[in-house]
Design a protein that fits this description.
Helix content is 16%, strand content 34%. The chain is an alpha+beta fold. The strands form two sheets. It has a five-stranded mixed barrel. Strands 2-3-4 form a three-stranded antiparallel sheet. It is built from two helices and nine strands.
Length: 149
């Protein structure tokens, strides 16, 4: 049985979400907190420090360890910090993965970036069976952002 959340989840979650038409960008929580600009449905990831134009964030792919879950919401932590996910009661998950300590991937639509990122979930998958997913995540994100024009 999933543990009850120990903290409230920031931001509200709309009752429906428009599914993204483009593939999700892999991001870390810190990138959203530090570099995201805009608002729901219009988020952009600033890349000015790298001398590049912003990325339109119609959907993101994040991975992290479940810290708390309940009521269709979860709080996760990636190597750069915590983020929250809502709308989980409406997404396919495969094996049960809303258990503290599980390592999961979440694809979703950004709802808020500060004080901590919040996603409206579109998909969630348990990646706990292979520790390589967790150990390589930060490098995957870094490599992707280095190679996106």
């Amino acid at each position: 049985m999933a543990a009850a959340p120990t903290a409230s989840f920031p931001g509200g979650c709309p009752t429906s979400v428009r599914l993204p038409r483009s593939p999700p960008f892999k991001v870390l929580a810190e990138q959203l907190r530090r570099d995201a600009e805009g608002g729901p449905g219009e988020w952009r990831l600033s890349r000015a420090a790298a001398g590049r134009g912003p990325l339109e964030l119609t959907a993101v792919w994040m991975q992290g360890t479940v810290l708390a879950a309940g009521g269709g919401e979860a709080r996760l932590r990636d190597p750069s910090g915590a983020f929250s996910v809502c709308g989980l009661e409406r997404v396919p998950r495969g094996r049960p993965c809303l258990v503290p300590g599980k390592y999961v991937m979440v694809m979703g639509v950004v709802q808020a970036c500060n004080p901590e990122p919040s996603l409206q979930a579109v998909k969630m998958t348990d990646l706990s069976d292979n520790p390589l997913h967790e150990s390589m995540w930060e490098l995957e994100v870094e490599d992707l952002h280095r190679n996106i024009p």
